[in-house]
Structure formats: structure tokens, C-alpha cells
């Protein structure tokens, strides 16, 4: 199973779109600790691979990531990472 931000030149069949989201609460003492985003990327990539594999895909292409910082009035900030891409299956 592979993920790519580009298309794939080999003959393939499109299976549909897959998406995944992960979030992390930022405690007030670490409110500017954005290096935690690295773990979110790993989590989201693993979710994409798992979901695409369950659908019989060989890979996910044209993967796009969006990040967001959700500010709550009565709670800490949340780092939110969402990814989506197109599942493909190789034509054999």
C-alpha cells in the first residue's frame, strides 16, 4: 500500500475517495508546541492506508492534507489534520 501526492502513470482503476482525520488537544502549558503535528501526519497516513486496503486498493494518489487549529473558549486548542485522496487498484 502506498500514498502519493502525485498521480500514478501505470494503468489503474479508480475505486473512489478515501479520507481520514486525526486531532490532538494542546494543553495550556504546551499551547505553541506545533511539532506535535508530526504525529498527526503519521496517524492520518496510517488511517488512509488501512481504509484503502479494506476497499482493495493498491494505493492512494493525489493525497492532500489540510491543517486547522480549533480554538475553544473553555478548552485547550486542538490541532486537526485531515487528508483525502483517490484510491486506485492496478489493472493486471
From TrEMBL:
SUPFAM superfamilies: YbjQ-like
Segment forming the signal sequence: none
Pfam families associated with the record: YbjQ_1
Domain of life: Bacteria
UniProt family annotation: Belongs to the UPF0145 family.
Name of the protein in question: Heavy metal-binding domain-containing protein
Amino acid at each position: 500500500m502506498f500514498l502519493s501526492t502525485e498521480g500514478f502513470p501505470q494503468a489503474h482503476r479508480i475505486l473512489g475517495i478515501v479520507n481520514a482525520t486525526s486531532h490532538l488537544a494542546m494543553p495550556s502549558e504546551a499551547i505553541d508546541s506545533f511539532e506535535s503535528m508530526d504525529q498527526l501526519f503519521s496517524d492520518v497516513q496510517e488511517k488512509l492506508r488501512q481504509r484503502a486496503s479494506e476497499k482493495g486498493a493498491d494505493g492512494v494518489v493525489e493525497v492532500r492534507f489540510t491543517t486547522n487549529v480549533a480554538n475553544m473558549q473553555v478548552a485547550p486548542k486542538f490541532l486537526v489534520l485531515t487528508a483525502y485522496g483517490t484510491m486506485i487498484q492496478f489493472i493486471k
